[in-house]
Amino acid sequence: MKHYGTLTVYVYTSDARIPIEGAEITVTTDLSPGAAVLAVELTDRDGYIRPIRLETPDAAESCCPGQETPFTAVAVTARHPDYMTQSAAALQIFPDTATVQGFRMIPAAPTLRDPNPYQTPDQDL
Fold first, then answer.
1. Where are the domains of the chain?
2. Which of 16, 36, 57, 81 has a 20 to 30 A CA-CA distance from 106?
């Protein structure tokens, strides 16, 4: 019999916890390049994604030292074009348990572009 836990992500900005709509949430096996993608969701107007159901080990198989860990570890990344990307690694998802991960997003600095960028002159050698 398979066992599952759920992961919900809440994305907000400021101490007032203002929700951010449209943030892309990516759940992977870890944060390394090429890690397996388990889910991709967008936050709703309240800053939440729908709960993601993730397979976990059976808790009964981890009652003694040296046995399997009682959770599944995942990584979560939150991206939005107006905010700095945030990530969390090794989030523990337990069987029959709802896990909620919050991300406080920091506004990204606007890109400063000079309409007349400096051109280095050719060297006269």
1. 3-105
2. 36
